Request: fold
Amino acid sequence: MGAPAVPHLVLRLMVLLAVLLAWAPAPPAAAHGELLFSDPPADGVVQALPSRAFLTFSDAVSEIREITVVGPEGSVTNGAPSSIGPEVRQTLWEGVDGAYTLEYYVVSADGHDVRGEVHFEVGPTSTAATTGTSGDEPQASGEDPPSEGRFAAVLPAGLVLVAAAVALALLRRRRSTATGPDNG
Reply:
């Protein structure tokens, strides 16, 4: 008489698993475009302001909304930016030594906005050792850090594995009870 309770227990576990999966956060979608590197480099020091700034993204750029480069004496942006695939180019005027901020706002091929800032300095390159470089790549604002979202993907998979293990253990127990010495 105890054997019919096992399928009900398995059914209850499956319903509980479905409810838990429904409440679990969804794993993140495919990665959106982000800035891979820039020239001038982020947090870098260049001896003289180059005639062009380059931004390379992880995905092709479908639209450039805005590119600005501002230094100690204001904007050094010269003309409209252009893009070819994942690379964006912006012509620059000459600029004086000092701190600069390159702001970008583009739309990647997947339709998502990618925006952020690249900070760099113009001046004697010997100051690079004193100011240091972080080595961190800039991220588009509004994006989750890479470590977030991993738990969201692991939790549902772990729940499925636990539920499957419990179901298998219950089925083995049921079969061993059904094929016991009384039924053999």
Residues 5-28+148-178 form one domain. The chain has two domains: 5-28+148-178, 35-131. Confidence is low (pLDDT under 50) at residues 127-153.
